[in-house]
Prior knowledge:
Elements: H1 2-12, H2 20-40, H3 46-53, H4 57-66, E1 76-79, E2 84-86, H5 87-90, H6 98-112, H7 116-127, H8 132-139, H9 143-161
Antiparallel strand pairs: 1-2
Amino acid sequence: xxxxxxxxxxxxxxxxxxxxxxxxxxxxxxxxxxxxxxxxxxxxxxxxxxxxxxxxxxxxxxxxxxxxxxxxxxxxxxxxxxxxxxxxxxxxxxxxxxxxxxxxxxxxxxxxxxxxxxxxxxxxxxxxxxxxxxxxxxxxxxxxxxxxxxxxxxxxxxxxxxxx
Length: 164
């Protein structure tokens, strides 16, 4: 009874909450993995486990990840005596690099130089996903005019971003 209370306390006061269905799936994944290893004398792939359980591969991966212990970003991965490498040092952020910020700023400045009509056409075309015919109907001009204005606006942006 005491060990059950301790397990319940640890489960209920954990830093991360994992749903019961996900834990059940993870338990089934572990059982299938052990049975597969015993029968075939090799580690099963995620696809093997998914096929045997009748699940999507992503569900199996999520269940396996849910049961992994969380790791601190500051946990050392390597230590050569004086200097250590933490998990955070190995994680890269390709989205928020200095070059990406500069490109975003340059693009914003280039678009700001366009007229209101060109901005509206580009917004409707590239953000709303409308066709040139739909944009033409909304603005009240011909499709050919939309095409010409769009082409000129894109050309102006290219010139601003990549000066010759």
